[in-house]
Amino acid sequence: MKEFANQVAFVTGAASGMGKAISLDLAASGAQVWGVDSNAEGLSEIKLIADKSNLSLKTDICDISKQKDVRNSFRKMEAKLGSCSILVTAAGVGLYTDFIEMSDSQMRQVIDVNFIGSMYCSQEAIIQMRKIGGGRIVYVSSVQAELSLKGCVVYAAQKAALNSAARTLVLEVGHENIRVNTVSPGTIDTPMLRRDLTGMNVAQANEFLTSVKAANTVGKIGTVEEVADVVHYLVSDKSSYVTGTDIIVDGGFRVLKKF
Question: Is the pLDDT of residue 117 over 60?
């Protein structure tokens, strides 16, 4: 029997990047995965990959910044797969811009998707986890929760909020066999990183990537699979005594980086 057989996992941001890798990893280990995203094309792609490998992965278009969408998606999942036992929130919006220039809509998009959306999902997940006697929640945060960059005031703030929410939530649900943790990646090879290269010429892109690799102790950019491996551990029985904590996956970025 596979490790996560009989487990139902709700994963946000499943259409790309870390959310996609996490969804496929959990499904490959036997979980019934309900992957949500607002990117319909990306969801079609991951569904095709899962079907080719005969993995149990269903997708749903869902804007997690809208509480009604989240509630509806959780209800559909429960009707089709059963109650949620694993929640991983990996959806994220990254807007790197001067704080003074940020519009109200930009601020709210970052906060609503990256933080409030995780809270909406947690409320629904906990309701279902209580029915089955427990569960595991993991928020994908960022090293910027503690060590940030210029142009990331709101982004860094909501990542710190995720870490704080996880530490505090365990006080309310720990006695119900629900564990809550965060994973804080450093620079990871995702569509968000590749977007940062858009508009650069070859020389500029190479210089940027070289500086990124030099900003950690292992000298490379992390992969989405390396993040998925840590999430896998946190939602497994091997981490049964781990809760209310943050695991940093940054190749030593925080040890080396100085501003």
Answer: yes
